[in-house]
Specification:
- Keywords: Plasmid.
- This protein is an alpha+beta fold.
- It has two domains: 3-87 and 128-156; 89-126, no CATH class.
- The chain is built from five helices and nine strands; from the N terminus they run H-H-H-E-E-E-E-E-E-E-H-H-E-E.
- The strands form four sheets. Strands 2-3-4 form a three-stranded antiparallel sheet, with no helix packed on it.
- Helix 1 packs antiparallel against helix 2, helix 1 (3-24) runs antiparallel to helix 5 and helix 2 packs antiparallel against helix 3 (68-80).
Length: 157
């Protein structure tokens, strides 16, 4: 991305952050407040990545760091895969038949055995409905459309 593109993306992300913070005041449940808080944290992380990319661009333009261009390419690749997750992430290890929900969680064995035999049951991810998102649904759609950053909110069941 160019400096102008990064600056525009930075401005969009900062604007969406303000919209989400303002929208949080109208929340009627703790769940809705938590979704807003997590979205703000995700937007903060995206803004921080953009700031790193802009700093690397400056170093490339001034020629002060010979490796800055390679770092900038790596940051662009990382940012291209950037996603904001509002609820659960599911990590599955098919070799050991274990899974964990969210990065800090413990690994759980998905094997069950009874007289009928052995069965492997991994949880599935179910997306939140627009009703569960409330007023945040349209903001999330706008964020994805304007910035290209996907926002996921799924629940493990």
């Amino acid at each position: 991305m160019t400096t102008d593109q990064n600056l525009m993306l930075y401005a969009k992300l900062a604007g969406f952050r303000l919209v989400v913070v303002a929208n949080r005041f109208g929340c009627d449940s703790g769940f809705s407040q938590e979704l807003h808080d997590r979205l703000v944290l995700g937007l903060d992380a995206a803004i921080a990545r953009i700031q790193v990319m802009m700093a690397l661009e400056r170093r490339v333009l001034t020629g002060e760091d010979e490796f800055a261009e390679y770092q900038m390419q790596g940051e662009n690749e990382i940012f291209g895969r950037f996603t904001i997750n509002l609820l659960n992430e599911l990590e599955i290890d098919f070799d050991t038949h274990e899974y964990r929900i969210n990065d800090g969680g413990d690994w759980i064995n998905a094997l069950t055995a009874d007289a009928g035999g052995v069965e492997v049951r991994f949880p599935t991810l179910v997306g939140l409905t627009d009703e569960e998102f409330g007023s945040l649904a349209s903001i999330i759609k706008d964020i994805t459309l304007a910035t290209g950053i996907p926002v996921h909110a799924v629940r493990a069941i």
